[in-house]
Write a structure and sequence with these properties.
Helices cover about 30% and strands about 25% of the residues. It is an alpha/beta fold. It is globular.
Length: about 350
């Protein structure tokens, strides 16, 4: 009998030589919560919060603004922005750490809601770097021939896992969803990803209890739900040093220099971290730096697409600009890419 490897050749996928961002969409919850409202439950002031985080307001989802709803709105807007026939979308990735169930996962329902039931659809969980992970997967899927047009959604309902009386975390996080359409391109407009993690420091961002512990507790008596807790000083030190290095490696992998970058879109974790990274990288004063954190807070996996949409919509950046994107957070994980920005999204 002939050996399998001698008689069968596995066909290779016919992928695209490059990929590009074709469209972008966003959804921000209706309710806006100010620093003043946060300070009704914690011993702080709006000025103290702004000085240390760069945050003035954040959006908090109401009952009808679920992860599925926000994702579907952002995804539909991204497809409309891309100007492609929705029937061409053949895969959808939802990047989130706050969907309420593991089974079923969110993406198939989101795909159905935008009229694409039956396509490949899956969730990934990589904390605040989730969108970068999803973007890398989508780009590689298209280059490898597995898909042609992929919607990538970053979405979080961080407010459900926050202790609003915790002075360390109550003011930091917000809710929302941002989405992009990734498609084929003759020229490459999304760079190779630079990503990694530091499991030795993963406990810097965690929950007060595991799901198993919560289930065991509630079998005996009603128990408080787990909340997010964070060692802010440890995360700040890690990000200020390691993420600046990862950003520099991202530029190198993309074959561009700091003076060729026109927009810097870091994860919106902390205004001081973002300023420190821009300075460390030697970005020119002409570079537009995303500051969506001021009005949106830290939305974890949603923060980069939300910040990108804001910059394009408000004219801080324009179609074709070279942008350095770097996500970082829980894990501790990170993911960086250089991209050419899509067109300004249409008014909602």
């Amino acid at each position: 009998m002939a050996d399998f490897n001698d008689t069968v050749t596995i066909a290779a996928g016919e992928g695209s030589p490059g990929t590009a961002l074709l469209g972008i969409g966003a959804y921000r919850p209706r309710r806006v919560v100010s620093n003043e409202e946060i300070c009704e439950k914690i011993d702080s002031t709006s000025e103290w919060i702004y000085e240390r985080s760069g945050i003035l307001n954040r959006h908090v989802a109401e009952k009808d603004e679920s992860v599925i709803f926000m994702s579907s709105e952002a995804a539909a807007r991204a497809v409309a922005s891309a100007g492609i026939d929705p029937e061409l979308v053949d895969a959808l990735i939802v990047c989130t750490s706050t969907y309420e169930t593991y089974v079923p996962h969110a993406a198939p329902k989101v795909a159905d809601n935008i009229g694409r039931n039956g396509i490949a659809a899956f969730d990934i969980t990589a904390g605040c770097s989730g969108f970068g992970y999803g973007l890398a997967l989508a780009s590689n899927m298209i280059r490898g021939g597995g898909s042609r047009y992929v919607v990538v959604v970053g979405v979080e309902r961080m407010s459900e896992g926050i202790d609003w009386t915790d002075r360390n975390t109550a003011f930091i996080f917000g809710d929302g969803a941002g989405a992009v359409v990734v498609g084929p391109s003759e020229t490459n407009e999304i760079s190779q990803v630079v990503w990694g993690s530091d499991g030795q420091q993963s406990e810097a961002i965690t929950l007060t209890k595991t799901l198993r512990e919560y289930i065991d507790e509630t079998q005996e008596a009603p128990a408080p739900a787990p909340f997010l807790v964070m060692d802010g000083s440890k995360v700040f030190r890690w990000a200020a040093v390691q993420i600046a290095k990862a950003s520099a490696r991202t530029l190198e992998a993309a074959g561009v220099t700091a003076d060729q970058i026109q927009a810097f879109i870091p994860h919106q974790a902390n205004g001081r971290i973002n300023s420190a990274m821009a300075k460390h990288l030697g970005l020119p004063d002409t570079v537009a730096i995303a500051n969506d954190i001021e009005q949106t807070g830290n939305t974890s996996a949603a923060s980069i697409p939300l910040a990108m949409e804001t910059m394009l919509r408000e004219g801080q950046a324009k179609q074709g600009d070279l942008a350095l994107c770097i996500g970082f957070g829980a894990g501790l994980s990170y993911a960086g890419q250089v991209v050419r920005l899509p067109a300004k999204p249409p008014a909602n």
